[in-house]
Hints:
Elements: H1 3-14, H2 31-43, H3 45-70, H4 76-120, H5 123-133, H6 136-178
Helix pairs in contact: 1-3, 2-4, 2-5, 3-4
Amino acid sequence: MTLLKTVQAGLVAAALLASPIAFAQKADSSPAKKDLIARILKLQQPAIEALTIGVLSRPVNELAAKAAPALRNVPEAKREAVAKQIDADLRKFMDDNGPGLVDKGKVLVPQTMGVALDEKFTEDELKQLVAWLESPVSKKFAESAQDLQTIYTKKLIDDNGKQLDEKFTALQQNVAKQLGMDGGPAAPASGAKAAPKTTPKK
C-alpha cells in the first residue's frame, strides 16, 4: 500500500464518527447546539491531533520495520551510519509533514466529526457530554490513558511475546521459502531483539 493510500485509510478511521451522507450542517441546529459541538471539538483537539499524527506515523513505522532487515545487507563498516541516516530521514519526514497534516485536519474536523455530532446527538446529550469532558474525573482519566495503555501493552508482550516471536519466525520463514528466498533471522513480532544468527563450525 502506498503512503497516500495508507494515510487516506487512516483518515477514514480518524473520522469514524462521521456519517457518509451528513456533510452539511443541519438547518435546524440551534446556536446553543452549535456552541456545544464547538466546545466538544476543542476539548478533543489534543486527542484528534495525536490521532492525526498517528495516521502519518503508521506508514513511516512500517517503512522503518521493512528497512531494518535490509540493513543486514549493508557492509558492517557502513551499517551504523546508514541506520542513523535512515532514522534522520524518517524523523525529518514527520517534522516536515506532521504539522501541515494537523492543520488540514483542523479544517476537516467540523465538516466530519462536528456534523456527525450534530446528526447523532441531541442538544441535551451534548450538554451531558460537555459536562463529562470538562469534569476533573474525565481530565484525570485522559491524563492517565497513556500510562494505562503502557502497563497493558508491557504485560501483554511479557506474557505472550516469546510465543508470538516463535510463531512469527515460522511464518516469515515459510513465506520466504515459498518465494524462494533465504528467510534469514526474523524480525520479532513482539518488538524484542532477535537472537544473533550463528554460523555452524565446520
